[in-house]
Amino acid sequence: MTGTTKPSLAARVPATAAGPDGPAAPAGGGGVAAKSAGAARALGGRVYLVVAAALFALAGAVLAGDAAWPGSWTWDAETPLDELNRWLILNRDSHPLFLYFLLHLSNNVNSAVDTALAVLQGLGWPGVTVAATLGAWAAAGGGTRPRALTTAGTALAAFAAIGLLGMWPHAMLTLALMVVAVTLSAVLGLLLGLAAGLSDRAGRALRPVFDTMQVLPAFAYLLPFVLLFGIGTAPALFATVIYAAPPMARLTALGLREADPAALECARSLGAGPWQRLLTARLPLARPRMLLGLNQTIMMALSMVVIASIIGAGGLGDQVFDGLRTQDIGKALTAGIAIVLIAIWLDRTTAAAGERLEHPGAGTGRAAAALPLAVTVAATVAAWLLGRVALGLGAWPDGWTFSIADPVNDTVDWMVVNLGSGVPLVGGTLTWAENFTLWVLNPLRDGLTAIPWWALLPLAGVLGFLAGRLRSALTAMGALAAIGVLGLWDKSLNTLSQVLGALLLTLLIGFAAGIAAARRPLLEKLLRPVLDVLQTMPQFIYLIPVVALFGVGRIAAITAAVVYALPAVVRITTQGVRQVDATVLEASRSLGATPWQQLRQVQLPLARAQLLLAVNQGVVLVLAVVVVGGLVGGGALGFDTVYGLQRGDLGVGLPAGAAIVCLGLLLDRITQPGRDAAPGPGTGRGDRAGRSRP
Amino acid sequence: MKATGQHPLPRQRADVAAPEPGERPPVFAVRGLWKVFGPRAERVPRNPALAALPAAELTARTGCTAAVRDVSFEVRPGECFVVMGLSGSGKSTLVRCLTRLIEPTAGAVAMDGEDVLAMDKERLRELRRHRAAMVFQHFGLLPHRTVRDNIAYGLQIQGLSRAERRARAEEMAAKVGLTGLEHRRPAQLSGGQQQRVGIARALAVDPEVMLFDEPFSALDPLIRRDMQDEVLRLRREEGRTMVFITHDLSEALRVGDRIALMRDGGIVQIGTPEEIVGRPADDYVRDFVRDVPRDQVITVRSAMRPVGPGDADRDGCAELPPETVVADAIAAVARTGRPARVTDRGGRCLGVVDHERLLSVVAGLDTPELEGTAT
């Protein structure tokens, strides 16, 4: 699921730790790994294996030429899917499954969203703003401490800006969707987390499910729900709930499992029963983790609520989507800014609450926590009475808005004319895009398609085997074969070439920036706030500026993917290089190693596991956005999915979605960082891998 | 040489300890206790051939590890019973078997004559709630609770009302010297203070016996000393039975009335500090106690010789009670320049220590002869 928002990274890290066994040593990173002769021999063997598979593929490409997946081995999914769709449309209002179950679900969800929206509208803008601001203040502990005041200030500024931008009604709809989606995800995640945390069997059963969900791009979740519910609010919400629940479940389980054994043993030694242990020790000890999970669930829900506008969720996402579709960058950007503001408000508020839990101060008793809450409720009621009831203030007044759409569109036009091409020496953004397409993307795509399927399959198998032994090899080959069977071989390879191109850029920039930040504290200090903001934004948002710069096409999708994946890669790299054992580094320094030698001989080899994790994260994140790039002309699988979603043409959309899932599995399995890569679930170090907090 | 306060000084031990056995049943009576970890662990104690194997061979043969092997001892009411051994010797497992935090594989554990292993869940919970309270090496405090609520935790589990348990917690906080810190969180306390909370939490339930599992190992040496004093003080004031696990010999000698020395899961020797230091059961124990300043541990009771014909002249002789440690006897002999007489409370002369006897204790030459003369 990390496929999608970066906050989910945290939940992902422990997951990879428990991934398929076996050390990972892809050819490139392997050379630095080991000094001992035995290890070196083993490494040599691996390199030969990869080289052999690659040569085989190359030879196949040259000798056999263009050998795509044989047409007779494909299975036509379109016809049965179309039939299923037709059947569903005919029976949606009459079949018992719908009458007694699914329609109830969607009706309840719809009315819940309506109620939430009615409450928000009923509060009026003064009420909502006061509630959001003071809620943030209370979450950060209240009082006059700086953290509480800045959090409240952020909330106030965010809502004022949303109003000023004229996005108030759309924002309220998005918020109403969020309220329902987050509530449902949190409850679902909590229940699953309790099960996985308390029962070993449930934990074992759920872990692979969560692991797989983490690598699937958000897009893949939409289709099945459209199939069942048609287009509208309900499928969007259900997709969001399913998408956003895992971090909560995962971190709840983690918190329950890693609770201080001494404290639990103490509870037992004092004669506490199982329920007493759970309620007085285990759950309270897991609380900081659970709040972190809630934070991630909220951020993922926001990301998905925005994306789900494609299937009729409405709200801010709809504005972005509309703007992108009609090339109205100004409109898209206005809504995008509003989304980012909401994201920042939610993130800062929940993060402040989490931090307060983790570092409880002296005066944070129950009474001290209740007071700010009471103040918040009282002030909200007062604002409602004064604003809505007495003065009749409902939605944000029209007179208080100003549109930035026109100036933005003018700027974009200017940029296209002046920066697009013909800038002396550097060329221009459009020129770059053309050149990158011509010299990197097209050769990559043509190269991949030139490799015969019977050579590509073993190559995937070898890479999977090196990353995670037999199981990964089989999964990788199975996924690739499934793509072929679905009849989407060429399109998938096209998407794959985009992913690889984007990954190349991401890793080049990400490793360089990560290593530089690890070695220069000042640089890290400067980067940190930038990365924080970047990691808060939903993936959809990244498409807006790149379309302005690069026009519609593959390059826009790739650039968005790079920007989206970079923060995580930079963070993990920095962290990996940083956390190298200080004594080893000191030893090498005492032997007179130069900084370059230290980096090459000590820091990079010891950070190898983290670097591999960065690659894995990069792949998964890049894929998510490359696929969403179907919206802005990325073509291939992403386009098919979008087309299928918008037209309700499931015969096209679902196979494409399935192929995306397969591609995600394939890429994840061949880049598994292995067991030694990430901290085990017990160490609790990984949860912040993707994020830093001030 | 006179190192008062520098090293274990069990000077008044003799009068504190040794409540006459037989008066009350032992607090804990452990017989033939085994704890084996691993597949089909129960076969190891049953099979004499397996039971006799050394640890490494047992693991190789069966995949099992015997953490506690065939251990028997009694903890008498009011005494501080120390279990000492290096890490991995099984002492922490042993203490957990007493309240079945770890389920023993074989053997018998009785508390006040009642079979602990036969207890049902309810009875066992009752035992843990009211009769035996434990203090942990890593404190086991709940980070989200204040000091006061941590101390009151055991009472909360018992189901006491909030007002009652808070009042009791305040009382306990005062007793262990945490007054004024009741509203802090554990993270805001030093290590020593955190362990005071742990001790107060155990004391709060007013247990019959307190189990200390390496309580001070995680603390700095100076603080450790303070905490040992604290334990000695609590013991003096309350006379509570204690089982104390430690890997630190000086700590064992300092707080223990009797010490059980463990190695590889078995008990090598049980005895008073003086017996352990003065008459090590084997080379392992001898090695262990080699650096202990013997004059601080061994008393004149074991160092004296019978009154001989040359001791008739009592002029200027110092009179020492039998529990005087050798270091103090040396001071007395040096002061008077004459052998000192060891007398009991009634003034009866039990024996004589002269500089030869005292020097041989210091030099470590006394052991063989002691075996003959000691009571």
UniProtKB/TrEMBL annotation, chain A:
Regions of compositional bias (Basic and acidic residues) in chain numbering: 685-694
Entry GO CC: ATP-binding cassette (ABC) transporter complex
Compositional bias segments (type: Low complexity): 14-26
Name of the molecule in the record: Glycine betaine/proline transport system permease protein
Membrane topology field: Multi-pass membrane protein
Chief location: membrane
ABC transmembrane type-1 domain ranges (all copies): 171-350, 492-671
Family label: Belongs to the binding-protein-dependent transport system permease family.
GO process annotations (BP): choline transport; glycine betaine transport
Species of origin: Streptomyces aidingensis
TM region(s), chain numbering: 47-64, 149-168, 175-198, 218-245, 297-317, 329-346, 367-387, 447-466, 473-489, 495-519, 540-566, 618-638, 650-667
Subcellular compartments: Cell membrane; Membrane
InterPro entries per the UniProt record, alphabetical: MetI-like, MetI-like_sf
TrEMBL record, chain B:
Segments forming domain ABC transporter: 53-289
Disordered: annotated segments: 1-23
InterPro entries membership: AAA+_ATPase (IPR003593), ABC_osmolyte_uptake_ATP-bind (IPR051921), ABC_transporter-like_ATP-bd (IPR003439), ABC_transporter-like_CS (IPR017871), Gly-betaine_transp_ATP-bd (IPR005892), P-loop_NTPase (IPR027417)
Recorded GO MF terms: ATP binding; ATP hydrolysis activity
Family: Belongs to the ABC transporter superfamily.
Record-given protein name: Glycine betaine/proline transport system ATP-binding protein
Transferase as UniProt keyword: no
Cited SUPFAM superfamilies: P-loop containing nucleoside triphosphate hydrolases
GO biological process: glycine betaine transport; response to osmotic stress
Keyword terms of this UniProt record: ATP-binding, CBS domain, Nucleotide-binding, Transport
Any one Gene Ontology cellular component term annotated for this protein: membrane
One protein family per Pfam: ABC_tran
